[in-house]
């Protein structure tokens, strides 16, 4: 009924379509596993259930809340409505200070306690490293 060329084209087009679907599926599945959600302390307080997925929590470091022990740092992240206690083991970034923005990546233990595996200090668009600021003042 159909010639050899038509069958070959149909097989070729079908194989390309199946390949595209498979590649799309693999990309979406890979992104799904690596996506880290960003939440504020208020969003965490209203969660219906505490998940074991890695999330990011962002807010301001509460004044007088940083407690540094030998290898561990405890502090409170606030969004000025709710607060979340954060525990972190490791070195903290240089920009990490009280009343400054911070993003902590890790796992939620309950609605009040967060175990961080990474701390990211935030700064505004006007930030300038101290060394650069000093050299500009001298010149």
Description:
By secondary structure, the chain is of the alpha+beta class. It folds into 2 domains: 1-35; 37-121, OB fold (Dihydrolipoamide Acetyltransferase, E2P) (Beta Barrel). 32% of the residues lie in helices and 32% in strands. The protein is elongated, with a radius of gyration of 24 Å. The mean pLDDT is 85.
- Assembly type of the chains comes to single chain
Low-confidence stretches: none
Q: Estimate percent helicity.
A: 25-40%
* Structural class category: alpha+beta
CATH topology of the largest domain: OB fold (Dihydrolipoamide Acetyltransferase, E2P)
Distance between the termini: 84 Å
List keywords for this structure.
139 residues, alpha+beta, 2 domains, elongated
Brief description of this entry?
The chain is α+β, with helices and mostly antiparallel strands and 139 residues long. The protein has helices at residues 4-34, 41-45, 130-138, and strands spanning 37-39, 55-61, 67-68, 72-78, 83-89, 101-110, 113-121. The chain contains three helices and seven strands.
């Amino acid at each position: 009924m159909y010639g050899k060329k038509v069958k070959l084209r149909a097989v070729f087009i079908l194989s390309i379509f199946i390949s595209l679907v498979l590649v799309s599926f693999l990309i979406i599945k890979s992104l799904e596993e690596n996506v880290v959600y960003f939440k504020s302390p208020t969003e965490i307080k209203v969660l219906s259930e505490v998940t074991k997925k890695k999330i990011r929590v962002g807010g301001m470091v509460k004044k007088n809340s940083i407690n540094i022990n030998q290898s561990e740092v405890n502090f409170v992240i606030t969004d000025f409505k709710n607060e979340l206690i954060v525990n972190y083991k490791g070195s903290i970034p240089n920009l990490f200070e009280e009343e400054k923005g911070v993003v902590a990546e890790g796992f939620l233990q309950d609605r009040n306690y967060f175990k961080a595996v990474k701390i990211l200090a935030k700064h505004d668009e006007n930030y300038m490293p101290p060394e650069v600021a000093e050299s500009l003042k001298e010149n």
